[in-house]
Amino acid sequence: MNAPCSGQAERLRSAALLSVLLLACCTFRVQGASPEALFREGTTAYRSADYGLAAEAFRRCAGLQPASGTLQNLGNAEWQRGQAGPAVQAWEQALWLEPFNQPARQNLRFARKTAQLEGPDLAWYEVVSSWLPVNWWAWLTGVSLWLAVATTTLPGIFRQRKAVWHQAVAAVALMVFLLSVPAHIGVHTRSRIGFVLQKDTPLRLTPTAEAQSTQRLVAGEPARCQRTRGRFVLVRTNHSGGWVEKGQLGLICPGK
Question: Is residue 186 part of a domain?
Fold first, then answer.
């Protein structure tokens, strides 16, 4: 009498084990998806007008392998689904990695004109730092410094007369070096610029949930981070200052 029950229990255990294995395989495939696969998934979803799925795929792809093109597509998907804040942040991040990305720059210009948003208020050295990709400035600093030193000292070491071109190269290298130093400072200060992600984000007087709200910030509005306290960050916008929650602000530097 117990044999049929035992056989049925065995089949149930086998079915449960098979379900667990299938679930584990699916989870592994999702978690182990490559950036290339996620990019293709996002592109397919975007072409199918599934902008929510496209944004999620591009966001995960950018998290695994930050790239200007991926972030540009993420901004496009976010804009299509009505999320101006994340769209502006993604396009700004695309330009952070690749200042020559003209489609991202044009999208930013269009979005700010449409939503009547201001851009970040940049100092002159921050403007200089935005001319080239952030990683280029380190190379320029090192190469220009050593080039200036070499063209100045090597002729004397080898007991050769300094030619006019030695002096010209040294002058140009020194000029590039002096320009790259403030650009380095600009990269550091620009990395603290963020953008409001949600519309009607309250700007608080103190870093508490019960604090009085002085005004409501618009999604996509730039704000410069000054310091943090708990889950709040003190920011300075183009016109005022106050505290916002960390989750309501996205930084320009990918990965921060």
Answer: yes
Give the CATH number, domain containing residue 214: 2.30.30.40
255: alpha, beta or left, given left = phi > 0 and alpha = psi -120 to 50? left
In a domain, 10, yes or no: no
Q: Read off the pLDDT of residues 13-32 as tens digits, 9 standing for 90 and up.
A: 555 554 544 444 444 344 45
Is residue 129 within 8 Å of residue 137, measured between CB atoms? yes
User: Domain containing 107: what range?
Assistant: 35-115
**Separation between Cα atoms, residue 121 and residue 126, nearest integer Å:** 9
Same structural domain for residues 171 and 237? no
Residue burial 28-52, b: 16+ Cβ < 10 Å; e: rest: eeeeebebeebbebbeebbeeebbe
Within the chain, where are the H helices?
2-31, 35-47, 51-64, 68-80, 84-97, 102-115, 124-129, 134-157, 164-190
Residue scoring higher pLDDT (152 or 49): 49
One domain, residues 210 and 243: yes
125-156 pLDDT per residue, tens: 999 999 999 989 989 999 999 998 998 888 88
Please answer whether residues 207 and 230 qualify as being in contact, where contact means their C-beta atoms are separated by less than 8 angstroms.
yes
pLDDT band at 6 (very low <50, low <70, confident <90, very high): low
> Does residue 214 lie in a domain region?
yes
Structurally, the chain folds into a number of domains equal to: 3
Residues paired with residue 133 on neighbouring β-strands, in sequence order: none
Write out the two tokens for 228.
């943090």
CATH of the domain at 66: 1.25.40.10
